[in-house]
Amino acid sequence: MSALRTAAVVAAAALTLAGCVARENPSTRTGSQDTPVAEDTATDAGGAPTGGDCAFAPDESGAEPVVGMPPDEGPVDATTLSLSTSAGPVTIEFDADRAPCTVQSMAFLAGEGYFDGTTCHRLTTSEGLKVLQCGDPKGDGTGGPGYVVPDEFPTDLEPVETEFGSAVKYARGLVAMANAGPGTTGSQFFLVYGDSTLPPDYTVFGTMDASSLATLDAIAAGGLTPGPNGPQDGTPVTPVEIESAEVA
Fold first, then answer.
1. What whole-number distance in Å separates Cα of residue 63 and Cα of residue 225?
2. How far is CA 171 from the centre of its chain?
3. Which CATH number fits the domain that encloses residue 234?
4. What is the distance between the alpha carbons of residues 100 and 232, in angstroms, rounded to a whole number?
5. What does the CA dihedral 172, 175, 179, 181 come to, rounded to 10 degrees?
6. Is the Cβ–Cβ distance between 1 and 228 less than 8 Å?
7. Per the domain annotation, does 145 fall within a domain?
8. Whole-angstrom distance, CA of residue 3 vs CA of residue 230
9. Mean predicted lDDT score pLDDT of the chain
10. What pairs with residue 91 in β-bridges?
11. What CA–CA distance (Å, rounded) separates 202 from 204?
């Protein structure tokens, strides 16, 4: 995990996967939420595409494949991801319109039991960053599924001007993907329990309800054990293990 700035805005590396190396990826869709459809994509009787164009790719950083590559069959039917955790329930409503490939990946991983038994390893409590980070099978910020999900960075978040330049507000209740730069999104995600100021470089794929936020508020109130990034960034004192993750 990279060091945090203590000001209202957090550097782009604030929500990275430690140990991963950013790299060039010509297929990465930065700044666009559209999923292009290949000309030879099959369609159903109504003309809707039946295949996908997510181009999931092997992770070149060296992460070993855990459950294989997700099938790229187009938008999934799942609308929610329900996390049963040791600290309480968290329900994420998928936003497939905004991030169809990310939703495909998260639904696939949950269906394969990828998140079961993993921990939410990182809590931040600074003024500009209030998130709980999960989704790492190693539990230390360095793990991933062995493949890369195309970037689907948001273009509709509220802009925020800071002394460090332009950023956006990741509002309380959003759920987004962590990464180590363009073309490195894997399985780690963060739950925003308080408005956070970040560059628009993290794919938003869902939202949480009031009950889920109450769970997060209780985790945050329990405090954290500071890590190398400072006193407001570390391991939550309240253990958070994802006991099961189910899509519906």
1. 27
2. 14
3. 2.40.100.10
4. 33
5. -60
6. yes
7. yes
8. 8
9. 83
10. 82
11. 6
177 inside domain: yes
Q: Is the alpha carbon torsion for 212, 215, 220, 225 positive or negative?
A: negative
Q: Is residue 193 part of a domain?
A: yes
* SS3 track for 4-46: CCCCCCCCHHHHCCCCCCCCCCCCCCCCCCCCCCCCCCCECCC
Range of the domain at 221: 12-20+59-65+75-247
From residue 151, alpha-carbon distances to 3, 57, 70, 122, 233 in Å are 23, 12, 16, 22, 25
What tens digit of pLDDT does each residue of 170-207 get? 999 999 999 999 999 999 999 999 999 999 999 999 99
Mean pLDDT of 140-166: 94
The rounded Cα 238 to chain-centroid distance in angstroms is 21
Residue 19 has pLDDT above 60, yes or no: no
Number of domains in the chain: 1
Q: Is residue 5 part of a domain?
A: no
Among candidates 204, 199, 246, 231, which has minimal Cα distance to 123?
231
CA contacts within 13 A on the Cβ side of 105: 30
Residue type, 78: A
Structure tokens at 54: 């997510």
Distance between CA 145 and CA 106 in Å, rounded? 11
C-alpha span between 123 and 125 (Å, rounded):
7
How far apart, in whole angstroms, are the C-alpha atoms of residue 73 and residue 154? 23
Answer yes or no: are the C-beta atoms of 212 and 91 closer than 8 Å. Answer: yes
Residue 205 makes CB contacts below 8 A (sequence gap 6+) with 94, 95, 98, 99, 102, 103, 106, 152, 175, 176, 177, 189
